[in-house]
Amino acid sequence: MLFNVEAAGDVRCAVVGHVEVVEFARVDHVPSPGEIIQAEETWVEPAGGGAVASLALRRLAGDVMFFTALGDDEVGHRAEQQLRKAGVRVECVYRDEPQRRGFTYVDRDGERTITVIGRKLVPRADDPLPWNELEEIAGVYLCGADPAAVREARRARVLVATARELSTLRDAGVELDALVQSATDESERYQPGDLEPQPRRVVTTEGRQGGRYVEGDREGRWQAAPLPGPLADTYGAGDTFAAALALGLGAGRSTADALAFAARAAAEAMTVPGVGTR
Fold first, then answer.
1. What is the mean pLDDT of the chain?
2. pTM for the whole thing?
3. How far apart are CA 1 and CA 89, in angstroms?
4. Residue 172 φ/ψ, nearest 5 degrees
5. Straight-line distance from the first to the last Cα atom of the chain, in angstroms, rounded to the nearest whole number
6. Integer Cα distance of 129 and 82 in angstroms
7. Per-residue pLDDT at 6
């Protein structure tokens, strides 16, 4: 296993989300307008929030179902094959359009700069997918779906979602066990009252400062975990954190313990280049 964080035991998990097939380029710095730079290395992997979370849960829990939609082209079919080879149980449908792709610079500080290409493809409730199996799932991380598919995901014991999907979550109208937002990313912001019913927990990540959470009338913080090895890049650390939180809460851990577990998983992810399928 690439991950050394403690396994969570026999806990079944799932991810509902999207895939971006990303070409990574490791560079000294992100080029300024008009500049030409030389990449030190490049590689291509199935990535994006859903793929990142699925691969993380495969390493952490040993088994994961991934509900997604892929483009019906050579890129999309190859992504499914790569994810299956990595041990992910892929439950997907194919859309008659190109697979979404992306390009990511990784600079000398490990920071990632991402460009996405194409429409985000997400699973829908009316897709022929085994939604009923989610009733046997302890923890689900959701990062892409239509509102009805969010309601299908609520079958699981624990449902964690990213604030990137706020408009979809609002339309779905289900109670989340945790909503994960970013203190630094404007696209991942939640304000009290944005969702009804309110999430049971609102978790705010703050990078190297760890983060804070609100659970009812209780507030708390967690600390970022030290990296267990050299920094490779920060790609996917946030989705790994959220997926590990779903696993920890699904396993019955306290909020504080689940957050500490998620922080260790995110730290481990930053020592792996890209998403770790190479």
1. 95
2. 0.95
3. 17
4. -70, -40
5. 13
6. 20
7. 52
